[in-house]
Amino acid sequence: MTAAETYYPQEPTAPSVTTSAVPGPQSLAAIEALGQHFDARCAYFMVDYDASNGNYIVDADGNTFLDLYAQIASIALGYNNPRLIALLDTPQMKNALVNRPASGNFPAKEFDATLQKVLKLAPKGQDRVWSGLSGADANELAIKAAFMYYAQKKRGGAATPFTDSELSSVMENQAPGSPSYAVLSFKRAFHGRLFASGSCTCSKPIHKLDMPSFDWPHAEYPAYKYPLDEAANAAANRVEDDRCLALVEHLITSWATPVAALLIEPIQSEGGDNHASAYFLQGLRDVTLKHGVVFIIDEVQTGLGATGKLWCHEHSAISPPPDLVTFSKKCQSAGYWFHDPAFVPNQPYRQFNTWCGDPARMLIFGAIGQEIQEQGLLAQVNRVGDYLFGKLLALQKLYPDSFINLRGKDRGTFIAWDLPTGAQRDSLLKLLKLNGCNVGGCSDKSVRLRPTLTFEEKHVDVFIACLEKSVQQLNA
Predict the structure, then answer these.
(1) How far apart are CA 92 and CA 89, in angstroms?
(2) Residues 104, 356: contact at Cβ < 8 Å?
């Protein structure tokens, strides 16, 4: 039996949409009621999570959709997974939920065992973890760790005490205690909506309007020609990589304040599913080492298997490994991985908060990882991804104007393409819902696929039929 058959014997075999519009009347009424005391303007539809099963999500009107968006790429195993539900009956989960430990001061006696399960999932070269609450929080924490590490090196190492000037000036938000350091990120990047992460985000104005921002540089992320394996495109893409690497080094050496860290997504997800080549990522590692800059990989959306490896940057075999790797979404937890003990602050309470993450979510993270390994889900993602990409290539030949820059080959089910305009993309997403598939977009005109790790060939066949019907309607 396959993983999906084991988990979800009652999973629907096909979508079913009975309303003439999505959201339907029941969803619309519920959204309106919710909107009286909560900002519900972003709701696509109201969900009946009790009725949702496996790779299918059910709305308040009883419509059943094959879900290729999976809670904005954050559901790893599908809806109502029995292995995760079983965790609710364990004493560890009861303690984590009911007594919610303040793990920095009062860690549960089983906390190290929880961490050991999580550490089995660490990227190659990483053997330490610090936990957070969300993707944006993970990136904020990693930036903070990078700044403390960078300042500590400049000061002379962990044994060097803080000066009286540092201790007094920091209380006035002034240097030298509050130094002016920068994080270099990339145009079209998305790292979160908080303050440091917001300053690194550069995908859509709406993400950060009216928020004070740090004066930090944004480099250019390579824009490749597809398909990647065509000789002319490969040559042009290498030129593009070298151009962007030169710009990164120029910004590091010329920015008005020292660049302490570089933060990058191996695939820019919100910004349009823009892929970074292994050559580019290794070039960044070389540049950051050359200039003493902390190298942070943001794996919030790309992490935990969707690209066919546990961590997307592992496709690139970066050497030496990144300094910090952030995670969230499919992990159902958040935080950053690291390996150099020097990233542990030189004094306690510097990287600290009440809960130091969430032990309940870390328990789920460990359980998800165990299922990925025991069920062979990485192999499945690669197999299904190849099958899905092949089907999309066939559609691209039939409808080339509706499948521009198809990308994600050999990256599991982490696949995207463009439409000619944003209006056409939005119309296609609407048609897909009416035909029974919940699919998301990114950037201005891209469609992105983010199914669970239990997505199988049978689900691909349902999706492709729905997609072709929707494209035909779009082009009619």
Answers:
(1) 9
(2) yes
Cis-peptide into 420, omega within 30 deg = no
Contact 438, 452 (CB under 8 A): no
Give ranges for CATH 3.90.1150.10 in the chain: 3-83+376-475
The one catalytic residue in 329, 330, 391, 445 is 329
Q: Is pLDDT above 90 for 2?
A: no
Active site residue 298: yes
List CB contacts of 476: < 8 A, sequence separation 6 or more: none
Whether residue 308 contacts residue 410, with contact meaning beta carbons closer than 8 Å, is answered with: yes
Question: If DSSP codes are grouped into helix, strand and coil, which group holds residue 318?
Answer: coil
Q: Is 263 helix (H, G, I), strand (E, B) or coil?
A: strand
The CATH 3.40.640.10 domain(s) of the chain lie at 101-357
Specify whether 273 is catalytic: no
Query: How much is the average pLDDT of 109-116?
Result: 95
In whole angstroms, give the CA distance from residue 143 to residue 137.
10
Question: How wide is the angle at C-alpha 335 spanned by C-alphas 340 and 55, nearest 5°?
Answer: 135
Looking at residue 16, what DSSP letter applies?
B
If you average pLDDT over residues 200-221, what whole number do you get? 93
Has domain 101-357 been given CATH number 3.40.640.10?
A: yes
Q: Are strands 274-275 and 294-298 parallel, antiparallel or unpaired?
A: unpaired
Q: Which amino acid is at 236?
A: A
- The secondary structure of residue 89, as a DSSP letter, is G
Which residue among 61, 241, 298, 418 is the active-site one? 298
329 is an active site residue: yes
Say how far residue 201 (Cα) sits from the centre of its chain.
13
Q: What angle do CA 303, 305, 310 make, to 5 degrees?
A: 70
Averaged pLDDT of the chain: 96
Taking the C-alpha atoms of residue 74 and residue 300, their distance in angstroms, rounded to an integer, is 9
User: Which residues lie below 8 Å from residue 466, measured CB to CB, with a gap of 6+?
Assistant: 15, 66, 432, 435, 436, 437
Interval 185-204 mean pLDDT: 94
Contact 276, 238 (CB under 8 A): no
Q: How far apart are CA 3 and CA 455, in angstroms?
A: 9
Q: Which of 190, 280, 343, 455 is catalytic?
A: 190
Look up the CATH architecture of domain 3-83+376-475. Answer: Alpha-Beta Complex (3.90)
How many angstroms from the chain centroid is the CA of residue 151?
Answer: 28
- Tell me: pLDDT of 206 over 90: no
% of the chain beyond a pLDDT of 70: 100
pLDDT band at 6 (very low <50, low <70, confident <90, very high): confident
- Per DSSP, helices labelled H in 375-456 are 377-398, 422-434
Candidates 354, 401, 410, 421; catalytic one = 354
What's the one-letter identity of residue 102? Answer: A
409 catalytic per annotation: no
Predicted TM-score (pTM) of the model is 0.96
